[in-house]
Amino acid sequence: MNIDLARGLKSAPARDDMVIRHDWTMGEVTQLFALPFADLIHRAQTIHRRHFDANEVQMSTLLSIKTGGCPEDCGYCSQSAHFDTGLKATKLMAVEEVAAAAVQAKAGGASRFCMGAAWREPKDRDIDTICAMVKTVKDQGLETCMTLGMLTKPQAERLAEAGLDFYNHNIDTGPEYYAKVITTRTMQDRLDTLAHVRDAGMAVCCGGIVGMGEGRDDRIGMLVTLANLPKHPESVPINALMQIKGTPLGDSTPIEGFEFVRTIAAARIMMPDSVVRLSAGREHMSEELQALCFLAGANSIFIGAKLLTTKNPAKEKDDALWSKLGIRPMEA
Fold first, then answer.
1. What is the mean pLDDT of residues 163-177?
2. Is 206 an active-site residue?
């Protein structure tokens, strides 16, 4: 056997990559992150090709349907009422406005339309309007996703009845670092909402943010929490912090590129059937870094000029990258 190959095999954890697991330990994932870069990427890409077409990427659009004024104190967020970021709060959009945006998103190549509202949780009086938005977007032939904060069990059931496909509720970071990011909502609050979403029959979109000053152990803790859920999230967004002036985490040191790719690769290995989204932060990533992320197993992105309140690469820039890499849109 080739000596370099033998070394790579010896350095990899021995567990079977063919098995979908929910019992990952911190120690195992620490070993995973410590693999030589080429071995880690090869392992992630091998798993990726067993479960997906390696040249297809799921493309979503994200619309802020209610911006600003959120009572939560998430330290990264421009929409928190606790911080002076210069963002003007708005009311909930009209259903007709959302419908028009969905038509535009589909024309731009999106297969999933995601809607976000800056709420701690939706009020029951808003659920009828929210359900109408879901139905009008689905009428365009798009998958639907919403992120509205915490949900009660009855609210989750209403959204499921309306036909909502995905509900996004990120855990943000690992359990040990969580209190340094947010104090107005606990990790358990987030897990409870995920349970309500699952029980209602909707698919889960859940990931986190890196580059908030956390260490590798915190990123590992985040992935272990996600991978050890009773069912893996169908969609796992990995966000690179968009630094926003006026937020407590706005001056955080950005995550190093190779460390970001390692995080993507670990997510792919630990959650083989999940779509791993290269989410916020692409605006500041080179083409080469994005390409490494796709090689490591990322297969979902947001397209469109804006992600809620922050910039996203222009369509022309993305189209040029897809052409260079031979990437095709994943069908819904």
1. 96
2. no
Res. 145: pLDDT tops 80: yes
pTM for the predicted model, two decimal places: 0.90
Give the active site residue among 43, 112, 114, 268. 114
Pair 200, 156: CB distance under 8 Å: yes
Q: Active-site residue among 70, 185, 219, 282?
A: 70
Residues 6 or more apart whose CB falls under 8 angstroms from that of 244 comprise 76, 77, 78, 85, 250, 310
- From CA 204, how far away is CA 207, in angstroms rounded? 10
Average pLDDT over residues 141-169: 95
Mean pLDDT of the chain: 90
Instruction: Taking residues 261-265, report their average pLDDT.
Output: 98
Residue 189 pLDDT more than 60?
yes
Handedness of CA 42, 45, 49, 50 (dihedral sign): positive
Residue 114 falls in the annotated catalytic set: yes
Q: How many CB atoms lie within 10 A of CB 293?
A: 25
Q: Which of 99, 88, 84 is nearest to 66 (CA)?
A: 88
State how far the Cα of 100 lies from the Cα of 96, in Å rounded to an integer: 6
Token representation of residue 98: 């959302």
- Return the pLDDT at 5: 42
Spot the catalytic one: 145, 219, 262, 268: 145
Separation CA 15–CA 182 (nearest Å): 35
Active-site hit among 43, 77, 158, 293: 77
**Arithmetic mean of pLDDT, 184-211:** 96
293 carries an active-site annotation: no
Q: Which residues of the chain form beta strands (DSSP E)?
A: 56-66, 112-117, 143-147, 166-168, 203-205, 208-210, 235-240, 275-278, 300-302, 306-307, 310-311, 328-329
Does 131 qualify as catalytic in the annotation?
no
Name the pLDDT band for 282 (thresholds 50, 70, 90): confident
Closest CA to 168 of 108, 236, 112, 220: 236
